[in-house]
């Protein structure tokens, strides 16, 4: 759809007052029409004057006229300059003929004595358009004629905003034109102070303007039609109260460029955009489940199958971790499980982006701790459950065991039986034992469950021994124990030194020359951006501090918030500097390399730490360069800058043909914007994206306790309920992630069938029919 061009003109100010007895005076903006529309305007001027009152004070006007438009679109224009030249337009009063004037009734039309040189259509006048000067109106029941006039003014304002943003809409890809236009309509409605009108419409059961985000123009149109029908003794059958082709702006289909803005059409468009990104809906719940996975998906070959079987249909890989070899294997396993289970599964890969993270640390010792559960007196309640198998044979139910030990030995497992005791000396030189309790089959063989009743530290090279009769024994050697994660512990009041070069602390993790714990960050942007007094956060806001001093290679931070016993801070943890001025490029050199892999292997790419339209333009250029018109795009909103510019980012993304969505990355977003702002921010993102028909991913700490401990909190369950307004809910890694996916899928299914359950609950209250 090619929108018409804009022609500017000046118009004589007209003041039209509609006096309703005891109801005060309504004021609306001036309208004017081009000469070419004179005949048409004369035919409708009577109905408009009798339904909308105008109060102009030399306001600047804009008029749009185009051959393929059946009506003139006119609206007040915000202008800083008064230097206009009249371009063949006449004022509204000049177009009124004698017959029109006869039908004005009690309307008094007169020219304003005020000049136009110092007049602007400012914010006060905008609110005045939709407010009544007499507050006594609130004491009366809903006046349909008054309410109808207000709603028509809103309607014109919404159309005005659409035309005022015609240049932006013309740049949008044709598949997103309706959605982009509805976003403009939504923003225009939000810019007005129409709380009183909303309340009148809602209390009368006509329309709730708070719930019309995805179909603004269609809802306003429907409300106007209803109000026209509800007006008592208002008009006869032969009198048009409003130009039908304006009211049916959403239904004009004669031109091939016409767009249907009706409620049904807009809802269908939103569903199409969602299906383009995530694929067609597979069941009634119509909400996708995304799960973040990493190297653990390779170590446990059944994990991806369990996730997909439990209801996950999107697998997310974070390119900030692991490498292409790991990513390739994860994708191969995901596609294999998807085909075997005959359930669709898409792959999203997040670019690392310019996110600040702590640097690497030395690998820790290859030691695993086996810890039985004890009561308050120290007595063992539950022995540690240990899975024993050959290398590569993962346990059938990973969450059911506390540790996995791979043992290298040809005949060792052939000689193990239920009840055997395996003796060993742990890494501290203490004698410990494992008692075999079960033999289980696994995907690539079999293994045993053994119980450990005393705390032990087992490492690569530990010898397990089966004692037999006649003094014979069989031995197996523990192998492939993963290295323990290294970390430092920081406490409130302590100091932390951030060092630019990783090599400075590779030799040891401990205390620096100034007596502070030390960590690395190899991003020069951090050291160039912070100054003393700036707040700084680590690990998604779990640790906070204030910058005490800076140099070329070091930043000294005083810790102001941590857990009472001290907080652990390890490698690859986030660093946020919300109050510092820092510039990030749209895509890093690593992102460009990873994008090549994503283009060949994934269905969607996540753009991390996007901040402004310039970043989106860089993304657009890279996608166009690689001819990736079908690759899905996910904009991760995780900074204050991205939130502030969200409508512009969406309009920019709509210039691509690619399907796209938005992720509410609540981890970094809460740190950047403040915890107290998070609730309102996520609601605003949902509303804006709903208006733009953009699918939303609800992310960060969803069912986190369930994922990590196996037991959810009440707040997590209600958070899922809030997340159901999004198109997709994302879960992060955890020992019980498969159980969490199953629980989430059950919750979503229960909510989708709640209507059926409600009918059952209502049966005792009503007699059988």
From TrEMBL:
Pfam families: PK (PF00224). Keywords: ATP-binding, Glycolysis, Kinase, Magnesium, Metal-binding, Nucleotide-binding, Pyruvate, Transferase. It comes from the Eukaryota. Pathway: Carbohydrate degradation; glycolysis; pyruvate from D-glyceraldehyde 3-phosphate: step 5/5. InterPro entries: Pyr_Knase, Pyrv/PenolPyrv_kinase-like_dom, Pyrv_kinase-like_dom_sf, Pyrv_Knase-like_insert_dom_sf, Pyrv_Knase_brl, Pyrv_Knase_insert_dom_sf. Its EC number is 2.7.1.40. This is pyruvate kinase. It comes from Musa troglodytarum.
């Amino acid at each position: 759809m090619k929108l018409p061009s804009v022609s500017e003109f000046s118009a004589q100010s007209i003041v039209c007052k509609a006096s309703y007895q005891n109801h005060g005076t309504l004021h609306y903006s001036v309208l004017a029409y081009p000469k070419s529309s004179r005949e048409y305007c004369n035919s409708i001027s009577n109905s408009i004057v009798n339904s909308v009152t105008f109060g102009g004070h030399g306001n600047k006007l804009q008029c749009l006229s185009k051959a393929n438009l059946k009506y003139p679109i006119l609206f007040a224009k915000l202008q800083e300059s008064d230097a206009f030249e009249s371009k063949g337009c006449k004022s509204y009063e000049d177009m009124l003929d004698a017959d029109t004037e006869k039908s004005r009734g009690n309307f008094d039309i007169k020219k304003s004595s005020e000049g136009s040189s110092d007049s602007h259509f400012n914010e006060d006048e905008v609110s005045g358009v939709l407010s009544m000067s007499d507050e006594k109106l609130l004491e009366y029941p809903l006046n349909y004629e008054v309410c109808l006039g207000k709603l028509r003014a809103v309607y014109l304002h919404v159309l005005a905003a659409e035309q005022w943003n015609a240049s932006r809409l013309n740049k949008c890809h044709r598949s997103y034109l309706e959605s982009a236009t509805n976003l403009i309509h939504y923003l225009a409605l939000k810019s007005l102070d129409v709380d009183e009108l909303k309340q009148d419409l809602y209390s009368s059961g006509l329309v709730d303007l708070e719930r019309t985000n995805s179909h603004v123009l269609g809802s306003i149109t429907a409300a106007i039609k209803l109000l026209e029908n509800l007006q008592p003794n208002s008009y006869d059958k032969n009198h048009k109260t409003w130009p039908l082709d304006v009211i049916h702006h959403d239904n004009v289909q004669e031109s091939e460029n016409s767009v249907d803005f009706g409620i049904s059409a807009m809802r269908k468009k939103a569903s199409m955009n969602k299906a383009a990104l995530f694929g067609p809906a597979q069941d009634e719940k119509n909400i996708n489940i995304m799960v973040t996975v990493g190297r653990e998906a390779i170590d446990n070959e059944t994990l991806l199958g369990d996730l997909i079987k439990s209801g996950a249909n999107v697998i997310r890989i974070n390119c900030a971790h692991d490498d292409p070899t790991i990513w390739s294997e994860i994708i191969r396993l995901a596609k294999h499980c998807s085909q075997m289970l005959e359930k669709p599964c898409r792959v999203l890969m997040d670019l690392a982006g310019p996110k600040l993270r702590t640097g690497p640390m030395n690998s820790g010792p290859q030691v695993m701790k086996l810890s039985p559960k004890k009561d308050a007196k120290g007595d063992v309640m539950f022995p540690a459950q240990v899975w024993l198998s050959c290398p590569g044979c993962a346990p059938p139910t990973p969450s059911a065991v506390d540790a996995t030990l791979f043992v290298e030995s040809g005949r060792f497992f052939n000689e193990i039986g239920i009840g055997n005791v395996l003796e060993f000396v742990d890494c501290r030189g203490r004698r410990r034992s494992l008692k075999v309790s079960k033999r289980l089959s696994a995907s690539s063989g079999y293994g045993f469950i053994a119980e450990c009743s005393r705390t032990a530290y087992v490492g690569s090279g530990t010898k397990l021994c089966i004692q037999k009769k006649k003094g014979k024994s069989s031995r197996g050697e523990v192998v492939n124990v993963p290295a323990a994660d290294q970390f430092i512990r920081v406490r409130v009041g302590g100091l932390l030194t951030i060092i630019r070069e990783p090599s400075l602390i590779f030799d040891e993790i401990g205390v620096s020359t100034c007596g502070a714990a030390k960590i690395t960050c190899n991003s020069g942007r951090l050291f160039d951006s912070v100054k003393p007094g700036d707040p700084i956060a680590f690990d998604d806001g779990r640790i906070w501090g204030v910058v005490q001093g800076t140099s070329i290679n070091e930043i000294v931070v005083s810790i102001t918030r941590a857990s009472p016993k001290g907080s652990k801070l390890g490698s690859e943890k986030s660093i946020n500097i919300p109050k510092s001025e820092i510039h990030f490029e749209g895509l890093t050199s690593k992102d460009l390399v990873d994008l090549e892999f994503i283009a060949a292997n994934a269905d969607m790419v996540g753009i991390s730490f996007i901040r402004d339209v310039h970043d989106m333009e860089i993304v657009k250029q890279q996608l166009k360069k690689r001819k990736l018109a079908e690759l899905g795009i996910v904009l991760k909103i995780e900074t204050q800058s991205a939130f502030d510019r969200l409508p512009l980012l969406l309009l920019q993304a709509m210039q691509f043909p690619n399907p796209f969505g938005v992720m509410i990355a609540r981890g970094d977003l809460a740190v950047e914007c403040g915890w107290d702002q998070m609730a309102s921010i996520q609601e605003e993102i949902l509303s804006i994206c709903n208006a733009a028909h953009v699918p939303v991913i609800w992310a960060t700490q969803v069912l986190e306790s369930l994922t990590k401990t196996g037991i959810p909190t009440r707040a997590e369950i209600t958070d899922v309920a809030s997340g159901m307004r999004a198109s997709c809910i994302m879960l992060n890694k955890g020992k019980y992630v498969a159980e969490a996916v199953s629980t989430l899928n059950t919750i979503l299914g229960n909510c989708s069938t709640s209507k059926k359950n409600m009918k059952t609950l209502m049966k005792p209250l009503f007699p059988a029919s």
